[in-house]
Amino acid sequence: MYTYEELKHFVCACNRCSLCKTRNHPVMGKGNLHSSILFIAEAPGQTEDQNGIPFTGRSGQIFDQLLTEADMSREEIYLTNVVKCHPPRNRDPLPEEQEACIPYLKYETLLLRPKIIVCLGRIAAQRIIRPNFRITREHGTFVTRKNVSLTAVYHPSAILRDPTKFAETVRDFQAIKKKLQNTGPM
Ligand code: URA
Ligand code: SF4
């Protein structure tokens, strides 16, 4: 078993897929390593590629608002991405890039041992929950796998494109918070 710091070093030096040629900074997950809740988005954006920190651009502002609405904060959660390097022009990460990067996410999950996993957006939901997951129809629903509750919500960038999605995502976040409270202390 590697330590978290060792894992971070591997990610920072990684060249397992071709995104290593175009990225500026690999973006390791960030947050509370003792948290019971893990948020997984798809891949770093341009801002994150510049500063190496997940969700620090416009999507990050929406994400922070959603956390606040549900009385949560970055200090009490852990946040990461399926793919740790920025795909050029924000394209979806390719299946082979996801395949190359997924061991890091698996390792983060192993170290964290979360009780709840929240996928942010379709890409993460289809990778983590089910390949045919329909985000529009199924966001906010929970399934249980190996004693872990899994759910998905709209990606913050989808809310930026369509602000009418904000209110229902607030409701999803509030239901997630309730679930968290029912699973015991963080
Ligand atoms: N979008 C993502 O999916 N992840 C980030 O870290 C930032 C933007
Ligand atoms: Fe490595 Fe993942 Fe970056 Fe590809 S996306 S180079 S697998 S850290």
Order of helices and strands: HEEHHEHEHHEEHH
Ligands bound to this protein structure:
uracil, iron/sulfur cluster
Return the average pLDDT rounded to an integer. Answer: 97
What form results from the Cα inertia axes?
globular
Number of separate strands: 6
Classify the secondary structure makeup into a structural class: alpha/beta
Largest sheet: 6 strands, mixed
Topology:
Elements: H1 4-12, E1 30-31, E2 37-41, H2 46-51, H3 58-69, E3 78-81, H4 95-112, E4 116-120, H5 122-128, H6 135-138, E5 143-145, E6 148-153, H7 156-161, H8 165-182
The structure holds uracil (URA) and iron/sulfur cluster (SF4).
Summary of the model, kept short:
This protein has 186 residues and is of the alpha/beta class. The chain is 43% helix and 13% strand.
